[in-house]
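REVIEWER CHECKLIST
Item 1: Sequence provided? yes
Item 2: Single chain? yes
Item 3: Sequence as submitted:
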Amino acid sequence: MKRIIVYYSNGGTTDLVAKTLAKKLNADLARIYDLKNRDGLKNRLFASIHAFRETKTDIVPAKVDLRGYDTIYFGTPTWNGNPTPAILTIIDRSDLRAKDVILFATMDANRGETSVNRLEEKVKLRGARVIESFTIATKNKSPEKLVRDTEAIIEMKDLKMY
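Item 4: Structure as written out by the authors:
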C-alpha cells in the first residue's frame, strides 16, 4: 500500500503534523508552497478573504503526480473556517478518480470541521472516495504535544490500515 501526504503549511504546525504522519505511516510527502506572501497582518487578512472566496493561487509544485498511490492525504491549516487557497488549488489540479482520500485540518481555535467538510466536497467532485478525516487543534501546544496528538489520531482512527 503506497501513501502520499499532500499538504500546505504556513506557520509550521501543519508541516509537523504531516511529517509525523509520513514517518509513522511510511508515506511520501509533497509540500505545496503558495507563491503569494501570506505573512504579516495585512497579508493574513487577504489570505483569509482568499480562503473564504476559494481564490486560486500560484503554487509550487504546480501539480503532483498521484498515479502510483493507493491513499492520498490532503492537509491544510484552517483560515477563517476554510481550507487554504494553496490546497484548494492543488486539489483542483489533481486527478482523483477512484482514489481513496484522507483529509485533515489544523486549527488554532475551532471550525476545522467546516474546513474538512469543504475539502470533502472538493475531492468528491474530482472523483475521490473520502475514507477518513480529522482535525487537530494546535493553539498553545508544544511541538511534542502536537506529535503525540497526531500519533494518538493514527491509533484512534487506525490509519495504518489504509
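Item 5: Key structural point noted by reviewer: The chain has a mean pLDDT of 89.
Item 6: Recommendation: ____
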